[in-house]
Structure formats: structure tokens, C-alpha cells
Amino acid sequence: MTRSKRRKMQRKGAAATARAITRKVPIASAALLTAMSAAYAQTGSSGLEEIIVTAQKRAESLQDVPLAVQALGTQRLEELNVTRFDDFVRFLPSVSYQTFGPGFARVYMRGVASGGDGNHSASLPSVGVYLDEQPITTIQGPLDIHMYDIERVEALAGPQGTLFGASSQAGTLRIITNKPDPTGFDASYGVELNTVSGGDQGYLAEGFVNVPLGDKAAVRLVGWARHDAGYLDNIRSTRVYPTSGIAVDNSRFVERNYNDVDTYGARAALQVDLDDNWTVTPTIMGQVQKANGSFAFDETLKDFQVSHARPEASDDRWMQAALTVEGKVGNFDIVYAGAYMFRDVDTDSDYQDYSYWYDALYGYGAYWYDDAGDLVEPTQYIQGQDNYTRQTHEIRLVSPQDQRFRYTLGAFYQRAFHHIQQRYKIDDLAQSISVTGWPDTIWLTEQDRTDVDYAVFGQADFDITDKLTATAGLRYFWVDNSLKGFFGYGAGYSSGTGEGACTLRQPNGADGPNFRDAPCLNLDKSVDQDDQSMKLGLSYKLTDDKMIYANYAEGFRPGGINRRGSLPPYLPDFLDSYEVGWKTSWADNRVRFNGALFYQEWKDFQFPILGANGLTEIKNAAQAEIKGIEADLVWAATDQFSLSAAVSYVDSELTKPYCGFVDPSTNRPVAQDPCPTFDPDTGLPDGGFADPEAPEGQRLPVTPEWKGNVTARYQFPLGTFDSYVQAAAVYVGERESDLRTLERSILGRLPSYTTVDLAAGIGREQWSLDLFVTNLADELGEVDRFVQCAETVCGEQRYIIPTQPRVISLKFTQRF
Asked: Cα torsion at 87, 91, 97, 101 (round to 10°)?
């Protein structure tokens, strides 16, 4: 189906587990069902608008898709004043996330989270994020796209590996942009001024224009510029290092509201209908995002305060060029989607806590001196460069959808490249102990990571009867992960690591070659795997507007190479998911009530930790099980009043203990209680035992048991104006900060929080003036907690990433 035809279509319109979960959610179930029952008494004929999604890579009504999908359309995104990733994720109960600031979000779905992801040499994400047809997920987080002129956001919960690949192990988020429209001119712009409680002022300017180029072509141009005000303060302090007695004064970095962000970008798309069957759509999109300061405050100080002594900033630049070709051969739809993306991220980070606490506990400051042999201030800071490129190609064939047997067949190729450079620096460091060729650098990471993915896939539906449909899907894939380069100290500081570990040799026996500008090559490893994932499902139409379904799906995430080359590769992990769900419409389509019960088994899951020297290490843990329920309700009570609500409950825990290491002989995670200990010289059991780092039954981190939201909107005439008022509340329950018992006791549990947003506006057909108040009560919610180094060392100085304080915005929009 071509986009022009799809546009016309859019315009026209586990049983024991289930019982166990249902017993735990009586209040939510009763509330939803009570609201739905009340809706039966409402009258009116307009009903709810049909939502068209492409969750199965073909256009179909949301209510006909037999899997858990939540969609936020253009109107809903605008009503909620969504501009950033954080804004829309709040309203997706199946999604949880951690973040270190703009562009550094780590996304999780349905409780499939062990915490600690996002390091440049760590696991691939478990949730795929797509911009239209192309994946935009990188190791450190998906692109932080400014959310304007977006057709919809789709959240596909549960494994989506059959159609979307390995990084969709736990689910997929899809951001679908509005496409050029040859049928008519359209344009709009918006300007916004806002102020942050306790912070500065921000602004937003955005606009688009859609220009037909004859009857069969159009161009759509979109642009935006946004300034997000800062609200964290870097206050003055003096810190004395115990070993040297040297005092650190951060006076030159003191600044109020120093975590401001500037974002600007553009998108240009051209659509050409070559004839009635073939459409070509090239698109190019780019964005620059410059963020200052830190987005976490120091718990040892007052709220929203840090005291850092080195620069902190990020400069995130990306561009994606994409081409989509859609057409028909006979009765079959053919789609090709290809894209090339690059992303360059430069970062500056304060690392003073690492320096201070290692000095306080282990005398770290005695090792750092200048060329004269005198001790120097040992404060570390990090200068990082991450350069990504990614190309993807997919071609698929879709059979006619009006047939009893219908299917999608496809092939996929992806190559993701990541150049990593990180300099850990100390000012005035002696040349003799710096990394060769890198002044003041105590540690250097200069590496290239490459992830390659080939796959063939297919999914088929067969109507057993007019009401009963069977679905089967299979994806076979080949993946390769390689890591090559240099990491470590200079030869003058360590004889066994860094330059001291440059033992790789050329074929003639000479010393190994340099790697880029690094002193040498001391890591060159790769791992390749091939496997398959499958999906099986049944759906049954109770009536034309009520469906139930059951699915089994497998999720897969590839293994890879550890940044510390002496460690073995980490293994792939697998997710088996069982889901029973319903899609229903009631009261003449004035009520939509959807939901799902699910049970998941997560096997050998990858678990990143901070190891020696602050290096992330990825180890396989053991097994976990996750069970839960999701439900969402939309109620058009009258033509003027609407109510929507969504809720999720997730119960996730280890089903085997986590010992924190793998068996040296098998590279499999050790999972028993008590855990055996091993002789470090022989790698064999030494007869000793220790408590597991996390016992069986331990709750998984990051994801709350309960997450939900409710939105009420009332529209009414005010004189000659169209007006509305709206209220939205989001609840996020308690979350564990770490998987391991000791570390979570140091970090503490993240408490629950509730935010309330209000909005009101007036307007006419071509303009509107809106007032938004986000986080009305100025609630201090905790999104994440962390420390700068291992919890047992830096645990006295915790950092909290808060929800944004109250924001009051005034926005004017005009459409032509």
C-alpha cells in the first residue's frame, strides 16, 4: 500500500499467571471497569477516532492488531505539549527509563531491566527505537528527537524480534513523522515562552510547511529551535585531598541554573508518486543539541545543587538521510527502506568524586606528580568523543491483505560503527606517567566497535474461520560484534596494563601497530553468532469491535566483547514471552478498553557493573521471571468531555541467585546459593563458598511495580472562541536502584512520585493560545540514582536525577 493510499485510509477513518496477577490488581481493574460501565450510559454519535498503526509493518487499525500497542497521535502529543523524549515516555506505562541528560536515555519495557546499561562498550539496548522505518538506537541512547510535526508514537510491548530485530528484545518504540501531502498546501508555526521554578526562562520556535509540487509530488519542510532553561546550581566549595593536603577551589565554575540546553534542527522530505502504484520518499533530518552542566544533584548538598570543579557539557550532533520506496508488483506490495545516520557526541565530565574517595580510602593522591616530582592536585576529568555511523537496508514483500492467507517476507542488513575516545586527565601530570603522546592523560580509551546484523524474516496470518486467525513469524539472523583498539594507562605508570599490555604482534614478529593516535593496539577481538527468534499467536473476534488474542514470542540480544580484553565475551541473552490480551470498543465506539496479561522468562541476562579502575564489565547473570498486566482506557463521555487512563503492574524477580561471575571452564553464569569461590591462579574451585550478590527472589531494578496516568479534557465555547481545560496526572511507583543486595543498600530505593499537569487554551480555526503548567506541585521525583565509581568506594556521595521542576509555558500557534 502506497503512502498516498494509506493516507486516504487513515482519513476514512498463561491462565494461572493471569489469575495471580489479577489478584494483585483489584483496585486498578475495578476503577477501569467502573469507568467503562459508566460510559455505557453516555449518548452521542461521534465516537472515538480510528487509529491507524503500522506495528506489523502494514497499515491497519489499532483495534485489529493482536498485540499490545499504545499509540499517541498528533493531536494527543500536541495536547500534552510533548517536545522531548522524557515528555512522551511518561505517558507510556510499559516503558521505564534511566538518563544522564538529553541524548543519554536508556529505555526499558515490561521490567526487562538489569540496570547499568549505556556504557559505550556495553550491551546492545533491549528496546529498539525507530524513526519511521529506520532504527535510531545507539549504545549510549536513542537520538533525542525534538517531537514536532509527528504523526504518532507507537509503543509495542513485548518481544518484537520477528519484524524488528535483535535490539527489540523487550519491545519497540516507533516515532512516525508526518509525510509530504500532494493534495494541498499546509503550514503552521508555534512560539512558546516558559519559565522553570527556581530556574531560568526558556523558549521554543517551530514550524512546518507542506507544498504540493503538482498533483503527484510534495515537499515538507520542518524546523525548530528550543532553549531549555537551567535549574541546577553549581555552588562554591573547597575540598582537601587527604594524602597531599592540596585544596580544590571550584570558584571559576560556580554558576546558577547551569544545566541549560539549546536544541535546533530541521527535516526535509520529498514525496513523489511516480504513478498510481509507486511512491518514492527521500528524507533528511538533522539536529544539534548543546547541553551544559549536570542533570543530577548531589545528595550531600541541598536539592538541585552540585559542587564540581571541572567543565561539564555535551555537544550532540546527528543527521539521518533515508529513502523509502513503496510500490506494487501485481497484487503484492513492495517496500524498500534504507538509511544512513551519523552522530557525533563530544562530552566533558567532572570526575572529582572518583579522585577524592580513592584518595581518602586508598591514598590514591600519592601516585600523581608533575615533571619536578611534586604531588599535583589529583582531580580527574573526562574528555570524550563518540562518533557513530549506521547504515540500514530492508526490503519486504507484503501479500494482499484481503486474502485468507497473507504474509510479509523480508531481508535486513545493518552495520553500526562506533569510534570511542575517552581521555581521563589530571592537570600538570608528569610526562613520564602520562599515556605516550597524550599530555596530562592518565588513562586513554581509543577503540572502534562494529556491530553487523543480517537477517531474513517472515510473518504470516491465516484465517482459520471468519473469527479465528493464527499467526506465525520467524526471523533468522547472523550478528557480529568486534572491538579493536587501545585502553589503559601509560607505560610509566603501569607495567601490566595499557601500554604495558601491548603484546599483539605483526606477522613478522615486530611490535604491534599503532591504533589511530593511540600508543599501540592492545585489544582486537570479535564474536559472531547466528540464531533465530519466532512468534506464534491466535486471535479471536468475539464481535466486530471486540477481540481477544494469545501470543508466544521470543526475544534475543547478541553477546559481545568486554572492554577489558582479559575478560571473556558476554553471552547472548534470551526472553520468552507469553501474552494474553484484549482489544475492545464499547458504547457505540465511545469507549476503548485494551489490555494484556504477560509472563516472561529472561535467561542468562547481561548485567553491566563497574569493575576495577571504574571500567564497565558485562557479565551474564542467571534467570529472572517477569509477570504483569497492562490496560488502557479511552472514554469520549460526551462530545466535549474525554477521559483517558493507562496503568501497568510489573512483578519481576530473580529465579536463580546471582553470584557475580561465570564458570571459567564454561563461561556460563554461576547460579547457586551459597556461591562457590575459585582459585585466581588456577581458575578451579577452591572449596570455599560465599553469599550470592543477589539471592533468588530478588526484585529487578529500574522498573516500578506500578505506573499509570490519567488525563481529563473538557472543550467548550467561550463567546466566539473554542476553549478547553485539561488535567493530567502521572504516577511512578517505587523502584530498586541496583540488582545486587549490597549496592542497592548503599544507593537506596527510588521513592514513588506523582506529577500533575494542567493546561488551558482558547482559539479559533486558524490560531490558538495555550497555557501549560507541568509538574504543578513542583514534585521532586527521582528518575535515577548513581555514584561516580564503585558503590563501595563512592557510596557516601550519591547523585539523584530529578524530574524537571514546575514549568509554566505560554504558547501561540497559527495554522495556514
From this structure: 10
